[in-house]
């Protein structure tokens, strides 16, 4: 599979994880070309890949995965060896306010891509999902495995679970060559500052309070985005068709501990912490068992949370102009 992949369609490549994946793939394989399909919604930032504009192996296409005629035509004409689907509405708070865009993009968009890939006989399809489809864990529960039942608790995670089930159905009904990946909480460069770590880093650097939900005792398993991208690549090239692979950082942390680590790295006081009303239905703990990916794909984590967080804080410090353009909305006034 690996040697035959030379043309990849990546959806959501201007987003946080997608942009890091595009960069990694182009850097590690000089014979590879990537088409990046992105609708450039608020979380799709052209600045993330602006320096690739002159790269002949990279092509940007603006489009919506929910636009079925457009998707069918793009995939039919692309000659792609693989389709890697990152594009998603992903912010839980926004899904609580209005679930409709999540159903449109995450469910309808996924089915459109599956139909287009099947019609065009694309050899490989990778669905990039989340550990949130498994629901929540108690403090002493074992970590999520690929066999953990899907019990999503937010409109966002429910829409991702629905998408995952459509991918499963495509494998069992149509025999499509599909693989699904599920990851724990990502962090790293280019992450939109509505998520916990980039929000807290950029707020701290600007001396703005850090809003901590509830008691701050929610537990998350943190994986650096580059380790996650390496996992997606391993699943793309080595994954068994129809299988699911979990990717985690083996790095569970209380949200409050992450908050204090950010303050320490930015040299800011704990007085910036502000407790706010907890999110409705807030999952208490996530933890991911990635033994299957380690044994079947030969994948392992390479970035410790301590080094990854320090590097992430340094990146946001060094890229103040990027942060300013995101926070002001200026990044939305251009095309990729």
TrEMBL record:
Task: Give the matching SUPFAM superfamilies.
Answer: NAD(P)-binding Rossmann-fold domains (SSF51735)
Q: What reactions does this protein catalyze?
A: dTDP-alpha-D-glucose = dTDP-4-dehydro-6-deoxy-alpha-D-glucose + H2O
Keywords on record:
Lyase, NAD
One biological process term in Gene Ontology: nucleotide-sugar metabolic process
Record-level Gene Ontology MF annotations: dTDP-glucose 4,6-dehydratase activity
Domain of life, per UniProt, equals Bacteria
* Enzyme category, top tier: lyase
Cofactors that this protein relies on: NAD(+)
Positions of the NAD(P)-binding domain: 9-311
For this protein, the record's InterPro entries field holds: dTDP_Gluc_deHydtase, NAD(P)-bd_dom, NAD(P)-bd_dom_sf
- Under Enzyme Commission nomenclature, its number is 4.2.1.46
For this chain, the family text in UniProt reads: Belongs to the NAD(P)-dependent epimerase/dehydratase family. dTDP-glucose dehydratase subfamily.
Protein name per Swiss-Prot or TrEMBL = dTDP-glucose 4,6-dehydratase
Origin species: Paludisphaera borealis
Per the UniProt record, the lineage of the source organism begins with: Bacteria, Pseudomonadati, Planctomycetota, Planctomycetia, Isosphaerales
